[in-house]
Design goal:
By secondary structure, the chain is α/β, with parallel strands linked by helices. It contains 16 helices and 22 strands. Helix 15 packs across helix 16. The relative contact order is 0.08.
């Protein structure tokens, strides 16, 4: 993406912060006004190009396409320096880290900006979207686009800031040890919302304790006068001792010491009704207007409580406004989206999956739609490393085969689950190693049945989201 910055950044400050190397003295009066990472869409002149390296691309390979249009190019590989234009090259250790450094410098040019960081293993995107949706009704905000929550996506979000921005709501996602330190240093939040600790990216973190320790690093960068919003029901998060301003939410209010909690939850096939109690800064408790939301599942109740706690204690105490906005919120695409197809209802949870989110999503689906005819379409949970086979085999403990109509499985790891099933369960289970035949069977299913509730859940790379889209197209054309 490419950005025109609203506030200019002195290039000497950027070079100093990144410990960059240059081939000739840089003009000290030069200011960074444009940031370019995509040569394909850049049509202007001037600015700085960052040669970002990704899993499937390397910006260094596109330097020749843009070098004559720009003022400088930031690279990490000296082999790409063009000799007769080397005065334009700035050498850094890592171009992504350099991009984050510039984003942090840019953020500092907005001293009045209030930044909210949402972290945790599950529920980050929905919680971030809830907070953003509510605040956008009253304030000028900038928030992480969809789930672009990594080092690059966070920088892109910060480059979108303007003088009008009151709140910046950032979802911070980690996949490797050390990334939270980079994100925290870049963001320097005024408010941190911690959703939960679960089995995410175990391929790299190995165990839950390591996940917790990495997520917890964000507190090292939380402003000393900031606020920490904490899920007190989480066995890891409830151990956090924060010396600053802390507000806790949860559902299991056994100790009667939460700031926001539920009094009653009612799940219906079409919506959820939540009665919420809030204890204000004076210790006084009061009941909020009943929340009627299109979000389903206990996990989304936690997301709503996180939103209420954050917005009320950090942004505005207009509780009627907060509840009304939550009632208007639509589920995030691929995170509980409801789709009607030929009299059947698809629940699309195909964006992400780890053992915790898979377990609770299946359990909630079976409970909420207990009287309906139910179908499960489950794909692999990825990045589990040595835990992969074990965690996929565990899923049969959460699937009540007596309460489902059909089970469809897809992916290399789901094959282990399928092969472990007894013959009586295999009668209602089908396994696929590719999407084409799965799509064909699902098409026949929704065209020959009505009243089915079909849950799609997997890691995004499995491609179940594409199956959902293709299924919609095929059915709508008939």
């Amino acid at each position: 993406m490419n950005f025109e910055l609203k506030n200019k950044i002195p290039i000497n400050k950027f070079i100093e912060e990144t410990s960059a190397e240059t081939f000739s003295p840089i003009k000290l009066n030069y200011f960074i006004k444009k940031v370019i990472t995509d040569t394909r869409t850049y049509k202007g002149r001037g600015g700085i190009f960052f040669a970002i390296k990704g899993k499937n691309f390397d910006g260094h390979n596109f330097i020749n396409q843009i070098i004559d249009k720009i003022d400088f190019v930031v690279i990490s590989d000296k082999n790409f320096v063009i000799e007769d234009k080397k005065h334009k090259f700035i050498i850094v250790k890592d171009t992504t880290l350099a991009l984050d450094t510039l984003a942090a410098l840019y953020k500092k040019t907005f001293p009045e900006l209030q930044t909210i960081a949402v972290v945790g293993s599950n529920g980050k995107t929905t919680t971030k979207e809830l907070i953003s949706f509510v605040l956008s009704k009253k304030y000028n905000i900038v928030s992480t686009y969809q789930n672009q929550n990594n080092l690059i996506g966070t920088a892109y979000t910060l480059f979108s800031l303007s003088r009008k921005t009151k709140f910046c709501v950032l979802e911070l996602g980690i996949s490797l040890p050390g990334e939270m330190d980079i994100l925290g240093k870049t963001v320097q939040p005024n408010c941190v919302v911690m959703t939960n600790i679960g089995k995410e990216h175990l391929e790299f973190f190995k165990n839950l304790e390591n996940v917790f320790q990495e997520e917890k690093k964000i507190l090292n960068y939380l402003h000393q006068n900031g606020i920490l919003v904490l899920n007190k029901d989480d066995i890891y998060l409830k151990t956090i001792q924060w010396i600053g301003y802390k507000k806790c939410y949860g559902i299991h209010n056994i100790a009667n010491n939460l700031d926001v909690y539920t009094e009653e939850i009612k799940f219906y096939p079409s919506h959820t009704e939540i009665s919420v109690i809030l204890r204000d800064n004076f210790g006084l408790k009061f009941k909020l207007p009943i929340i009627k939301t299109k979000l389903t599942g206990i996990y989304n109740v936690y997301n709503i409580l996180a939103c209420i706690t954050c917005v009320y204690f950090f942004c505005t105490e207009d509780i009627n406004f907060i509840c009304e906005a939550i009632n208007q919120f639509e589920p995030v695409i691929m995170r509980g989206t409801r789709i009607e197809l030929n009299g059947n209802i698809i629940i699309d949870e195909s964006y992400n999956a780890n053992p915790d989110s898979m377990q609770i999503t299946i359990s909630e689906f079976l409970k909420i739609f207990k009287d309906e005819k139910k179908v499960l379409v489950l794909g692999d949970m990825l990045e589990l490393g040595e835990h992969s086979i074990e965690e996929h085999l565990k899923l049969k403990n959460y699937i009540d085969f007596d309460r489902i109509y059909l089970l469809y499985l897809i992916g290399n790891n789901m094959k282990f689950l399928y092969e472990s099933l007894p013959p009586m369960y295999k009668k209602i289970t089908k396994y696929y190693n590719e999407k084409t035949s799965l799509l064909e069977d699902l098409k026949n299913l929704v065209l020959t049945n009505k009243g089915l509730y079909i849950l799609f859940k997997s890691s995004h790379a499995v491609g179940l989201s594409e199956v959902v889209k293709d299924l919609q197209k095929v059915v709508q054309q008939i």
